[in-house]
């Protein structure tokens, strides 16, 4: 069973250029007990991601500067493949949604969204993230068990060879 991460320990990096929209979204997230850090562009978001550990990145599709949200998503996923990235935009064009998902975003939220929808989508993406982390841990453990099994098998094979050698020498 997957144990969900306690919401108070969830830290979200919100990437939004408009200070009023950022404050509004941060308020909605904080109402759901998510710690929120705001970056106003992709470059700042990348710098923050290298300095702090975030549970999720929520980025506006229309980011200014060199690192647009597609590039931000690709860079984040190349450094932290399991880090959940959600994109949002007020335009809601299907091609934007598809491109965002194709570059690695875990979800895409069209604005305007309700104050209940955003935290619900964050919970869903975080559940998936926690499941991926758990599966990665179990996979590593299974790999270790497999190595132990191989070592035991090789020891048992040596024992059988030794017994064959002893029985042949007694004949």
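^ structure tokens above, recovered residues below v
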């Amino acid at each position: 069973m997957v144990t969900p991460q306690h919401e108070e320990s969830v830290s979200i990096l919100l990437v939004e250029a408009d200070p009023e929209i950022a404050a509004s979204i941060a308020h909605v997230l904080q109402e759901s007990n998510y710690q929120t850090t705001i970056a106003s562009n992709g470059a700042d978001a990348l710098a923050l991601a290298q300095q702090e550990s975030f549970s999720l990145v929520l980025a506006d599709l229309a980011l200014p500067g060199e690192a647009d949200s597609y590039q931000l998503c690709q860079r984040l996923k190349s450094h932290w493949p399991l880090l959940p990235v959600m994109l949002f935009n007020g335009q809601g064009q299907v091609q934007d949604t598809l491109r965002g998902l194709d570059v690695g975003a875990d979800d895409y939220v069209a604005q305007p969204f309700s104050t209940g929808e955003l935290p619900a989508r964050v919970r869903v993406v975080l559940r998936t993230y926690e499941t991926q982390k758990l599966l990665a841990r179990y996979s590593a453990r299974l790999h270790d068990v497999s190595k132990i099994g191989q070592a035991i098998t090789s020891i048992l094979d040596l024992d059988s060879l030794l017994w064959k050698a002893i029985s042949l020498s007694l004949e």
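Helices lie at 19-31, 42-51, 69-79, 94-102, 117-170.
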